[in-house]
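Posting this for the archive.
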Amino acid sequence: MRSSAVRLRAALNYAFRQPGLLEEALTHRSAAPRHNERLEFLGDALLNLVIAEYLFQCYPQASEGELSRLRATLVKGEALAELARGLKLGEELRLGQGELRSGGPQRESILADALEAIFGAVYLDGGLDACRALILRLYQDDLVGLASASELKDPKTRLQEYLQARQQPLPVYSVLEIHGEPHAQTFTVECAVADRRAVAMGSSRRKAEQDAARRLLEQLPP
């Protein structure tokens, strides 16, 4: 066994009972008829499940939209590729000559797909618990660095809660201007609280109000 292959298995901290599954997960379609695309399809679903489950349990006050946004930042290709680079996964991939010459071992999409394929392979080899353990282990630093539950709330909600906690009047939002054609309008909105004002623009009234609330929050003492 190559030293790099031994290193990868150690980095994954998982011993395959069916080593062929790992080999398939590391095989790009440019290299062989039996490649990792089906495993990647499975791994993508498993990753979304595990991360969704984790977020659901750790953020009981977060809304569906907040949970979805958090999950999206964790499962996007860029995040997966960064994890794959940490594992030096590119050194283990089986790629066709064309992909090798064009920098395939470091391409974001190829690395992300291969890591998802590994998740699928671990699931087939060891079950959901083994797959969950691997995903959470690899994502450990990213999960620790996630925003707090309060930071997940949108600016309007945070501003309202801030004012309510201090028994102050709620903010008043006013549309100052609307520019553009009906299908491409720009809204200018003011958010006012006592003697403080903040103005913002957005492609919808809601977006402008959110940005105005965020700007006003920045004016308030902690």
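Residues 37-58 form the longest helix (22 residues). The domain at 154-219 is CATH 3.30.160.20 (Double Stranded RNA Binding Domain).
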